[in-house]
Amino acid sequence: MGSNDTRDRLAEIQAGTHAVIDLDRYASNLKTVAELAGPNRSVMAVVKANAYGHGAPACARAAVDAGCRYLGVARIDEALELRGSGITAPILVIGPPNMAEIGLAIENDIALTVATETSAAQVIDQAESRNRRAIVHVKIDTGLHRYGALPDLAVAIAGRIDSHPATMLEGLYTHFSSADEEELEPTVEQIERFQATYTRIRERGIDPQLVHIANSAATITGLFPDTNMVRAGIVSYGLDPSNEITAPAGFRQILTLKTVITRRFTLEAGESVSYNRTYTASEDESAAAVPIGYADGIERHLSNTGWLMHADGRCPIIGRVCMDQSVISAPASAHEGDPVTVISDGSDGAMTVAVVGEICGTNTYEPVTRIAARVPRLYLRNGAPVSWSVPILGESGTFRST
Ligand SMILES: *Cc1c(COP(=O)(O)O)cnc(C)c1O
After folding, report:
1. Which protein residue has the closest C-alpha to ligand 1 atom 14?
2. Would the pLDDT of 2 be above 80?
3. Span from the CA of 180 to the centroid of ligand 1 (angstroms)
4. Mean per-residue pLDDT for 127-153?
5. 139: CA distance to ligand 1 center in Å?
6. From residue 361, how far is each of 40, 323, 341, 371, 384 by CA, in Å?
7. How is the beta sheet containing 326-329 ordered, strand by strand?
8. Tens digits of per-residue pLDDT, 15-38?
9. Which end of the chain is more exposed for a tag (fewer CB within 10 A), N or C?
10. C-alpha torsion 321→322→324→330, nearest 10
11. Is 233 in the pocket of ligand 1 (CB under 6 A)?
């Protein structure tokens, strides 16, 4: 798209708020996941929620290129987005399927999670009426008590899916509630319940090809006995699952969030800034406005607590973060048009995703998944931009190599 238009996408994107995603780091993180998983386990790259905000099509393609066996998404629509962008790799919807979209999923070779009798019946029905074979993973509820089938029902559904000609039982899995805690007991208990149910299913002569229980945290702690795939989300983006279970050495944050100074001014002593005047200058100070706010994914909690990074120094956020803009204290040397970093891996002194999570009283997942559709994404290979997407315009493209 756009290869012969005259617009300079790189310049347009870099002149405003944008995210930069390092695909080499992503690939390298996924290879480290594969090493942790060991030689007999494949990796499902979890790219739900727009690849945790990083951009699903670009990340999914990079994950497949890095050797991932499977892609995981939460919704059928997310899987359709990937199919629409030309990705033919296996995709599993790890969330409950939208009952009205099951037929669409089957037509597009999207594997579905089944954990209720209603969804089993619907999958069979939709596959039969299309004369196609639906790919199914049965999810066992071993203690998270969200979407999953309790053991007896899981055994029954697995039998029904396996024996029906319109369905193929490809996988069996469960999801942990507490793998990101130091306390292993709840996870061990879930593994035992899973193994007992898996044994019952095998005793019926059913042996699903893919068996998977580990998320990032369990992959890090190595809690994945008798399985042949791990599902890695957060750690593949170089982020810690929690403060207790952190990404081992070698993983690196792949996201940088940047903006630019739109106005540089002097805030006079006694003058205040932004809505509700929560910050007042005690002496004349250099300030700047930036076009990023909570509608871009920068939490309002960062008002008067977070900071941005200019080449000449740290810029505390002063006053309230607004919907579309914020105000920062800026070095006197700062100019309109200067780039400023909002979030980075910390190497330049900016807030990391973990620091943002800490300030906002949340985990590492929320700050990245909140990055809005109006924030353009730039993708790097070998440190240089190779492709871009502007989600709200539904546009993406690659830069011609020179
Ligand atoms: C989101 C999700 C994952 C990935 O979890 P991370 O902690 O990000 O690795 C794995 N499995 C299921 C079922 C999920 O919903």
Report:
1. 94
2. no
3. 11
4. 98
5. 13
6. 38, 20, 21, 17, 34
7. 263-267, 285-290, 326-329
8. 999 999 999 999 999 999 999 999
9. C
10. -40
11. yes
| Ligand 1: residue whose CA is nearest its atom 15 | 94
Q: How many DSSP H helices and E strands does the chain contain?
A: 12, 21
Candidate from 221-225, 324-328, 353-357, 398-402 with smallest mean pLDDT: 398-402
Q: Which residues contact 86 (CB under 8 A, 6 or more apart)?
A: none
Is 48 considered catalytic here? yes
Q: Whose CA is nearest to atom 4 of ligand 1?
A: 233
Helix (H, G, I), strand (E, B) or coil at 120: helix
Ligand 1 pocket, mutate which of 92, 93, 94 (most atoms under 8 A from CB): 94
Please report the pLDDT score of residue 192 as a whole number.
98
CB-based contact 173:212 (threshold 8 Å): yes
Catalytic residue selected from 26, 48, 52, 139: 48
Look up residue 270 and give its amino acid: G
Tell me what pLDDT residue 215 has: 98
Give the Å distance between the CA of 382 and the centre of ligand 1: 28
Report CA(263)–ligand 1 centroid distance (Å): 41
354 lines ligand 1 (CB under 6 A): no
Residue 258 reports pLDDT greater than 50 = yes
Percent of the chain with pLDDT over 70: 98
Residue 139 Cβ < 6 Å to ligand 1: no
Beta strands in 140-254 (DSSP E): 167-173, 210-214, 229-232
- Ligand 1 nearest-atom number relative to CA 48: 1
Catalytic residue among 70, 237, 275, 294: 275
Catalytic site includes residue 275: yes
Measured from the Cβ of residue 224, the count of other Cβ atoms closer than 10 Å reads 23
Phi, psi of 162 (to 5 degrees): -65, -35
Q: Tokens at residue 156, please?
A: 């029954």
DSSP for 299-366? -GGGTTT-EEEETTEEEEB-S---SS-EEEE--TT--TT-EEEEE-SSTTSPBPHHHHHHHTTS-SHH
Asked whether residue 400 carries a pLDDT value surpassing 90, the answer given is no
Please tell me the least confidently modeled range out of 220-229, 356-365, 393-402.
Answer: 393-402
Residue 155 has pLDDT above 70, yes or no: yes
